[in-house]
Structures are given as structure tokens and as C-alpha cells.
Structure of glutamate dehydrogenase [NAD(P)(+)]:
Amino acid sequence: MCTMGCRLIQRWGAVVDRRAATAAASGFISSSAAAAVRQLSTETHPIHHPAAASAKPSPPAAGTSPESVAEVPDVLSAPPSPDKQPTRVTNHDIPSSTERAAATVREALRGHKAQSPMREMTFLESVDRFFDDAAKLTHVSPALLGHIKECNTLLEFTFPILRSNGQIELIRAYRAQHSHHRLPTKGGIRYDVRVSEDEVKALAALMTFKCATVDVPFGGAKGGVVIDRTKYNDVELERITRRFTVELIRRNAIGPSLDVPAPDYGTGQREMGWMKDTYEAFHQKDIDRIACVTGKPINLGGIRGRESATGLGVYYGVREFLARPDVVQAYSIRKGAGVAGKDVVVQGLGNVGFWAAKFMRDMGQARIVAIAERDGYLVSRSDEGLDPTQVKRHLAATGGELRGYVEHRQAEVGVATAAAAMGGSTTATTTTTDTVAPVEFVPGNPAEALELDCDILIPAALEGVIHAGNAPRIRASVIAEAANGPVTYGADAHFRTQRQLGVDRPLIIPDLVLNAGGVTVSYFEWVKNLGHLRFGRMTRRIEEKTMRAVVDVLERHGVKLAARDLLDLQAGADETALVRSGLEDTMCTAVEETWTAAKQSGCDPRLAAYSNSIRKIAEDYGTSGIFP
Ligand SMILES: NC(=O)C1=CN([C@@H]2O[C@H](COP(=O)(O)OP(=O)(O)OC[C@H]3O[C@@H](n4cnc5c(N)ncnc54)[C@H](OP(=O)(O)O)[C@@H]3O)[C@@H](O)[C@H]2O)C=CC1
Ligand SMILES: O=C(O)CCC(=O)C(=O)O
């Protein structure tokens, strides 16, 4: 363990010995592995370090002007700044999975770099720069600001897994815990080849500020496993997930009161179920053990509404910003107030993108004009736009490819039309139309979709997609940050310059506010798990009876209610209704607080959200003091 000011970095090289290999070979929990974990979990690896009386503010990040933004982030080879990165200690050569991952990333970045020759800073530097700019709007002391900004703990480790072909492979993984001012720390687990130290630290910092923005009582964390999940079968993915969980257990980096993971890019309910099951195997005496992770399947203690929460929160957030006449005026929002009738482009139809698109269309009456995925993008020129559910179904059938969607729909509609002509019944998917909406598939670089003419652009895949290189070509009136960090500091600086020049710039609804629905409902799930009771279970029927009595009184006084109103009035709130109500309230409050601060400080919503959260965290330190 080494301490550097307020920052504690813990790293352990993997114990790549025969015993670990045998444990992995046996499909994970062999008795020897269990014994090893038991032994290691008794070691003390304290990760809660509020002590920071000697915290010094970190120096400003390199490249401090928009013009000096560094090269497009090469997440693998970007040189670490010496003041922040202690010498890497590992006890083995670079794992083969990391080498393969590196090759894949370099390949992907080649296309990206060809697109944007501008120099750009890393993700973490970008987050740090936003923090620094926002900090100037607060009256927090430089020393405390330094403490709030730094990542407290970084775990980096490797572990072996046995592939189905009998080969042993080393996997690299991370967990960053950015702040322990509130416990547990909280944040998702990402499975992707681009996962790196810089990325998890940036994402963990965003979690800290996001939780403060929506008043969710957690510190920020984020984890990641460096794999291309498409290259592993389900058995291998389960082994990786379970072994990763054990590596967290042995470092005291998972637990209901310590650190609570959740889904992120490349993971979902399934992985959270495996993590929970693994954690439980080692903590049977802990009555709160299922609160060790959120985003679980409902039958394993998950909560209704978590899967769609981030996307629904995105819709609520956009709706709330666009409902404000002063926002519409300040950013000259095309087509004026409201979501209805707006043209929307979505990048990434995963968990967040799908639900965001669905709610924008179904609840907001927006038109989804384009959807981008890895292999290209779909553009619709019809009045009704794209139906995200149909596109998602196609992606599921093709293993994630948009290619073939147009032909597939044509065939579907053709069959339905023929069936209808023969007097046969039509299916639910085809009753609404008998001709295929004019949809075009544009193969190739999905990033081109970001530059399409639209009202609302929803990047819902990865960070850094709107950068200094393509920012001048973005035509959207609103950029709704469903992903974490999709707009770089360089791009943001470009848009701010536009403002100074009196040119219209997009309203950027920042990630700290807009995608906070996920962690908000994770908080509800955690509370549900600690309470050991489903929300609404004790109240729904009594609410129904009370409302029935009220309706009876109204009817006795001659008030006639329509059947639909009667149903609505008498429905007691179940878990889904309560979760959505809590989510909507949280999002509305966050937008209100953010926009109020933006007006007071004369800044954009991003800096307003950062500065509000910095103030809240500083207030926590002010009242709790600094240990010891
Ligand atoms: N899940 C959550 O609750 C939350 C997630 N977020 C953030 O939202 C973002 C998305 O997360 P999530 O939806 O969970 O992840 P998913 O893995 O569910 O979905 C991501 C989608 O984006 C696609 N994609 C990848 N690269 C590109 C590209 N270049 N162009 C277009 N599409 C692409 C992926 O395709 P493929 O499957 O082929 O890789 C996948 O369909 C991340 O930034 C995450 O941190 C934020 C808050 C909460
Ligand atoms: O649900 C959670 O706890 C975390 C969600 C997350 O990772 C995020 O908001 O980026």
C-alpha cells in the first residue's frame, strides 16, 4: 500500500500460479481456489481513506487552452503524466488478451484518427478540465478541491481463466473508487477492449459528481474488464465475471456497505446475477448480501424499472430542459419548446440508447430519424420514423448488425400484405402499415450519423465521440448526453467559442444530469434489498381501498367518472409506478437545480452541474471534517 497525499493507489499483480490456474480450470470455485480466496480476503486492504489533511491540489492538466487539445486519445499508448501515475507493478508479462485487445483498439482508432486529425486530451484530462472550470464558480478552497478531484483508489489486476479450447488466458481488470465521502461507492462494470486506467478513473469521477447531482448518497466508482465480449462464449463470460468478482472480494472492493457495482457498457442483468451469486457464496452470514450489486434480474432481488431507468431518465431530462421557455430562447432551440415533433438521431441501440429512443418516441412523440450501430446507420425519411423496437429485434437476430434491416422489413411486410390479401390474419408487427417506410441503411462509419441534420442528437455508446475534429460539423440543436463523456473538452470549447461569437451553439444536456436515472434506480434497488421488502407490497391495496372510498363518496354526490378515470384513480402504486415516480421527481429536481445554477452563474448546464456537485461534496467535508 502506498499513500500519495489524499490519494491511495493499490495494485496487486495477479497471483498467476498453479493453484490459481487449477482453480480457473475447474470452472472457478474449486476447494483450492476457495481456500486461497478465504486466506486472501482475511488480509487487510483498507480502501476507505478519508484522511487527506495534507491533500495538495493537483496541478492543472496539460494543454490548457482549447487550441492545445491533444491528439485523439490513444487509450493504450497515451503517456501517463508523472505526477499522477505511479510505476506500474505487475508480476507477469502483458497478458495475451490485452495484446489482442490492443490490436483491436489500434485498428478501431486508425479509422477514428483518419476522421479527426485534431489533437485531443484523454478522457480523464477532459473530465479534470471540466472540473477545474466549474471549480472556479465555487468558493471551495484549493486544497479541498484537490482532494475532491483526485481518484482515491485504483485497483488493477489480472487473473487467469480457462478458455473452452483448454487454453489459459490472462484477463486484465480494473476498479476505480473515486470518492469515499459517502459510502458505499457505486458505479457500473464495463466489458470492452478499450477499458483502461484512464477510462475507469474518468468514469469513476463522473459517478461521484453524478451521484451528488441527483442527491444519491454514494461515492463514485467504476470498473472494467479488458475483453471483447463477442470473442467469448457464455460459459467463458460467466467464468470471467465470477473470477472478477472474487478478485474484488479478496480486495474488499465489493459489498453492500463498501462498493456496489452495476451494469455498464457490455454488461447487463445476466452479469449482475453472476456477481451476486458469487458474492453470496462467500458471504452467507451477511443478511444484506444481495445488496452487493444492483441491476440484477428481478427474480434475484432486482427492482422493476432498473433496466429502462437510464433511458427513461434521458427522456425526462430532455423533456424538462425543453419545457423551459428561457432554455429554448437561450439556445435558439429549433422547432421551439417540447419534445413532440422533434427529429432524433441515436448512436448505439444498447440498453441506454434503446430505452431512450423508445421513450422519446412513445412518450415524447418525437421522430427517430436515424439509428447508428457498429456497422453503419439507418436513416428514415418517413413521417413515423424508425421504430426502435423493430430495429432492436433485428439486432438481436443478427448478433448486432443493422445490415439487412431494410430487406428484412420488406420481407416481413410482403408476407403480411400477402396474408391480408388472402384473408389471413396479420401479426402485431405488421398491422400498422402495409408498405415499408422508406428506410436506408448506410454501411460503414457510424460516426457519420452524428453529423446528420436533426433536432436532438443522443450519443448513447461511448465517450469522446463528439470531439474537436467533428464538433464544427454537428448540426443538432440539442446534444443529449446519454453516454458518459460523449462530448470532449475540445468539442465543448468549440461550442463555447461559438457562443462568444454570437453563433448558435447546441444545448448540451450533460451526462451528470441526463444519464443519472440508472444510478438513481440502482439506489432504489439497494434500499429495497436492505429493507428486504418490495416497494408497494404493504401499501398498494390500502391505497386502492382508500381511493375506492373516495370514488364512492364522489359518486354519491352525483359525480360521474369515465371508466378509464376510475381505473387510474383506483390503482394503488406498485413497484414500477413508485420507481418511475421517484425517477421522474429526481430528474425534474436535478434539471431545476442545474438550470437555476446555470442562469445564476451565466454558464452552460455542464459547468452548473459540476459546480453544484462540487459544492455539495465540499459541504459534506465541511460538516463531517477530515479524518483523523
Ligand atoms: N447501463 C446503464 O445503466 C448506464 C450506462 N451509461 C452509459 O451509457 C453508455 C452506453 O451504455 P449501455 O447502453 O449500458 O451499453 P450497451 O453495451 O448496452 O450498449 C452500447 C451499444 O452501443 C453500440 N456501439 C458500440 N460502438 C458503437 C459505435 N461506434 N457506433 C454506434 N454504436 C456503437 C454497441 O454495439 P455492440 O453491442 O455491437 O458493441 C451497443 O449496442 C455508456 O457510456 C455507459 O457508460 C450511463 C449511465 C447508466
Ligand atoms: O447503476 C449504477 O449504480 C451505476 C450506473 C453507471 O455506471 C453510470 O451511471 O454510469
About this structure: The domain at 2-74+87-303 is CATH 3.40.50.10860 (Rossmann fold). The mean pLDDT is 84. Residues 575-601 form the longest helix (27 residues).
